[in-house]
């Protein structure tokens, strides 16, 4: 058996080994789904969150469940959790452009000091550590699709740099920790993920379009709408993250859905699936907004036996159903996408 086969077999056997996980950012969108999935596979979970962008309601369904603890804490300060830990999933960070533009220094501190503190927690407990990095590490890419060997095209002083560079620094810190202290680390580069528990006003395209469509307001598409994203449904992304956690891989490994969609197609799809009478309006495109985004997932397919299973129609339908049921009254409306300027006059397309 060669080393590759041995690693794959180890990967296949590892999920059962985690007894207790710390999820930083566990009260956020992705973190709350990770907490739920871990508890369902029999892993106790300690969620650490400062609620700067997350919400206590995101983990309300877990409170009182055996094995679940919520610790309010800012990970930019050194932190410890009581009891044993054999997995640290470091997901704390503002993630939507609206949030990190509002919290630029906290975003940089969380990517740097917060990552260092989370790595030190993993080292003290000899735990597996997984960093949530991002496709933003590729910036406005000049290689398409993006594979893990691509170094990226990032503006280090642009408005998005607080997020992009914080994540790139966090990746460097994670690699240095593994080299210097032998800590068992992995890095996932997550591409755009959507699903239930996103905030209607967080500025990301899917929740913005759904909120607007359900309110009968114009869907605010930035630029000419021909820029692409590849959108993964949250259940697929969570499965990929847990496969990475269970593996011995250091990464980085891309986790995303390679089905690319233009923003105008996405807006039309949301209008169709919601049965909305909304029109589409075009607003200014934010600075340094990537023109294309699509993961090369050859590595995840080969090493983690992972690929997405849920297509856009299915995932969007599930997300729309959740928004219909849970979006608080008044969460719909006609404001622009948070990272753009005010809407130009609406026109049907
Ligand atoms: N959702 C995506 O499409 C996507 C894509 C790429 C990467 N990611 C990464 O995944 C992680 C989660 O993203 P999300 O979409 O769930 O965002 P989110 O804003 O919903 O969740 C982030 C959570 O981290 C918490 N947090 C932030 N700074 C903190 C700090 N200093 N101390 C403690 N808690 C802190 C927030 O309160 C929030 O609960 C982030 O690290 C993000 O960069 C997400």
UniProtKB/TrEMBL annotation:
The lineage of its organism: Bacteria, Bacillati, Actinomycetota, Actinomycetes, Kitasatosporales. InterPro entries: Epimerase_deHydtase, NAD(P)-bd_dom_sf, UXS-like. Residues 327-349 are annotated as: Disordered. Residues 340-349 have a biased composition (Low complexity). It is found in: Golgi apparatus membrane; Golgi apparatus, Golgi stack membrane. GO terms for cellular component: cytoplasm. This is dTDP-glucose 4,6-dehydratase. It is a single-pass type II membrane protein. Gene3D superfamilies: NAD(P)-binding Rossmann-like Domain. Its main location: Golgi.
């Amino acid at each position: 058996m060669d080393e590759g086969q041995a690693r794959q077999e180890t990967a296949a056997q590892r999920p059962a080994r985690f007894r207790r996980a710390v999820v930083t950012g566990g009260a956020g969108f992705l973190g709350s789904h990770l907490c739920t999935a871990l508890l369902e596979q029999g892993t106790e979970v300690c969620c650490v969150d400062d609620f700067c962008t997350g919400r206590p309601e995101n983990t309300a369904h877990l409170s009182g469940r055996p094995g679940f603890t919520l610790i309010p804490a800012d990970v930019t300060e050194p932190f410890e959790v009581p009891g044993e830990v054999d997995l640290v999933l470091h997901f704390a960070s503002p993630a939507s452009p609206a949030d990190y533009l509002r919290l630029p220094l906290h975003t940089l501190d969380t990517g740097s000091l917060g990552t260092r503190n989370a790595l030190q927690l993993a080292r003290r407990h000899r735990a597996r550590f997984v960093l949530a990095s991002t496709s933003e590490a590729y910036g406005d890419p000049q290689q398409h699709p993006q594979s893990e060997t691509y170094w990226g095209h990032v503006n280090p002083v642009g408005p998005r740099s607080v997020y992009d560079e914080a994540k790139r620094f966090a990746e460097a810190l994670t690699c240095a920790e593994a080299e210097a202290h032998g800590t068992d680390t992995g890095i996932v580069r997550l591409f755009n993920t959507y699903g239930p528990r996103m905030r209607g006003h967080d500025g990301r395209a899917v929740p913005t379009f759904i909120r607007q469509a359900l309110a009968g307001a114009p869907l605010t598409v930035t630029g000419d709408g021909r820029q692409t994203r590849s959108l993964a449904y949250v259940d697929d992304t969570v499965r990929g993250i847990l496969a990475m956690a269970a593996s011995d891989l250091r990464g980085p490994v891309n986790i995303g859905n390679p089905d690319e969609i233009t923003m105008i197609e996405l807006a039309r799809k949301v209008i169709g699936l919601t049965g909305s009478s909304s029109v589409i309006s075009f607003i200014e495109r934010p600075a340094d907004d990537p023109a294309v985004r699509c993961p090369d997932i050859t590595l995840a397919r080969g090493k983690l036996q992972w690929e997405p299973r849920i297509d856009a129609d299915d995932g969007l339908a599930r997300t729309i159903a959740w928004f219909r049921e849970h979006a608080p009254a008044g969460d719909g409306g006609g404001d622009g996408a948070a990272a753009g300027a005010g809407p130009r006059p609406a026109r049907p397309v």
